[in-house]
Structures are given as C-alpha cells and as structure tokens.
Amino acid sequence: MRDQHMPQVDPSQFTETNHPALHYQQMLADHLRMQRYRQAIVQTVRTGDLVADLGTGLGVLALMAVQAGAARVYAVDNRPNALWMAERILRSNPGGDRVVLINADARSARLDEPVDLIVNELIGDFGTDENIHECVSAFADSNLKPAGSVLPDRLQTYLVPVEYGDEFRGIWRQDYFGLDLRAGMQYGCRDQAVMYNLREQPKELAAPGLVENIRFGRDMPSRTRPVDLTFEITRSGRLQGFVGYFSATLSDGIVISNYPCYPTCHWQNWHWPVAPPVDVEPGQSVTVSLDLQPNMVASGWRMDWEIL
Q1: pLDDT, tens digit, 9 for 90 and up, residues 40-67
Q2: Which of 65, 149, 165, 293 has a CA positioned 20 to 30 A from the CA of residue 191?
Q3: What is the pLDDT of residue 1?
Q4: pLDDT tens-digit readout, 227-241
Q5: Beta strands 115-120 and 144-151, pairing class
Q6: In this structure, is residue 226 part of a structural domain?
C-alpha cells in the first residue's frame, strides 16, 4: 500500500456521528448487499487486473477485488476519516499492500495508469441521487481502458403510483380497526419528498415507470431532466403517493434492488406523498414530471403531477 497524500486525522476527536467505522456499520451489515457485491467481484475480476474502487470507504470492496485476483486496486475517497481507518484495516489483511489509497474526488482523480475495472457502491436510495452517474462518467473517461468495464454494469430507476398498506401513510384509511382515520391526512406537508424503507410492497395502481436506464462505461450520455412519465391506472384505489426505487445489475445475472426493502437493507425508498389522497379508477391517467437535479439528494428533486 502506497501513501497518496494521506490526511492527518486525530482519532481522539471521533464521536458517534463521525467515527468512520460506525458510519459504515449499517452498510457492511447489509448482508445481501455485501454477498451480491462479492459474487459480482469474483465473477468480474480477472487475475492481474488493475481495478479502481470509487468511494472506497473502509476499503472492503478493494480487498475483495484483491482476493479475486487484482494485481493492484486504486481506492479513491474524499473523506479523510474513512481513508485513515481504511489504511489500518488494509494493514490487518493479506493483500492490503496491493491497495493504493487516494484522497481525491472521483470526478477529478487521475491515475498513473488506466484500469481494467471500476468498482463502486455509489448507489443512492433512488439510484442516482448520490452522483453515481457524474462520478463514474468522469472517472471512466479519464482512467478506464477502452475495453474496460464497470461494476455495477447497469442501473435502472423506477417510479410507481401506489396505495400504501399500513406502512408509511397507509393507516389513514376508512377501515382502521373499525375507525375512519382519513381526516388525519386531509392536509399535506411542505416537504416534496420523504424517505422511508418499505418492508412490504404497496398496492400498485399502475405499472412502474422507468425513470433512468444507465449503462456505465466510457462516453456515457448526459442524464435527461426533467423526466416525464404517464401512468395508466389499472387498479382502483386511493393514490397516496409515488415510490421511487432502483434495480442495479452488478454483473451478469447478479441484481440487487431496494423495492421492497429486504431484511438488513441499508437503502431506503424516496416517496412523493399525495395528501390528501385522490381516488382513482382504471382508465384514468396520471402524468408526472420529475426534475433530477445533479449534486442533490432526491428530497430536492421536484415533482409535478396531474390526473387526466
């Protein structure tokens, strides 16, 4: 492991909220996430490959790439505390000396040699709301070999109009233990979008609409915004909101999604509530315009909708 301008960190100043190990606790405890990434890395990395790990955090995916046969892994992150802790974890594991820690923003990082594979887990709760497109696109154009690949390979995001079960906004219904609670949701909130991890799939009132379909690599096209969708209502119900979620193809046949959220899932779902809810019937249409702002989480992505 080579030193690449490693930051100076005072561990005596760590707190519950800035301790680097605790920051990654929930992500590393997401067993399905880690299992799928490990499977995809083993499937994709070839012996002797040069690999870059963007947003490396504690260097766990970088170490997995080394275990899979990578000759060298460039582990890029712009968070000093994370890199400081990653350095110590790398020292504790065989092959850690084949990982080069780089303190930089992935969008501006330049390596001394091009890589065969870019690994990253910059997937946001709504897929692209952690700048995965911008980071991977810029890094790949500067550092990925022409025949190189990216893991995840593809990222699709969806929006679907729903009537919730008893999760989230679903209890505000007419038949709640013999009570009518609909009046509780006759007034909306000022927030555009809110985050909540659905454990059960709600009643979908129309087929999900594809928001983005991204294939990662060099020369990626720019993102389209705003995204305009039309939903044809297929089931009668109360439109209580729109759920945003992702499906990521890590490598061939290895997919992970956050809809609904599985046990130990560290991702959540973004929701655009409709309050008060609106009764809809098959044959009606709902148009949606969603403005995907770069460098901003989905809470700032403005949605406008209309029932036709």
Answers
A1: 999 999 999 999 999 999 999 999 999 9
A2: 165
A3: 45
A4: 999 999 999 999 999
A5: parallel
A6: yes
Question: In terms of domains, do 112 and 196 share one?
Answer: no
264 vs 197, 260, 267, CA distance in Å? 11, 12, 9
Last residue of some domain: 121, 146, 165?
A: 121
Contacts by 135-138, CB closer than 8 A, 24 or more apart: 135/54, 135/55, 135/106, 135/107, 136/54, 136/106, 136/216, 136/220, 137/216, 137/220, 138/106, 138/107, 138/108
- Which H helix or E strand runs over 75? strand 72-77
Mark whether 171 and 78 lie in a shared domain: no
**Structural domain includes residue 134:** no
Q: What residues contact residue 166 under an 8 Å CB cut-off, 6+ apart?
A: none
DSSP letter assigned to residue 205: S
Given a cut of 50, the residues of the chain with pLDDT beneath it are 1-3
The structural domain count of the chain equals 2
> What's the pLDDT score for residue 49?
98
In the structure encoding, which two tokens stand for residue 224, read together? 């389209």
Task: State the CATH number of the domain containing residue 16.
Answer: 3.40.50.150
* Amino acid of residue 225: R
Q: Tell me the C-alpha distance between 185 and 190, whole Å.
A: 13
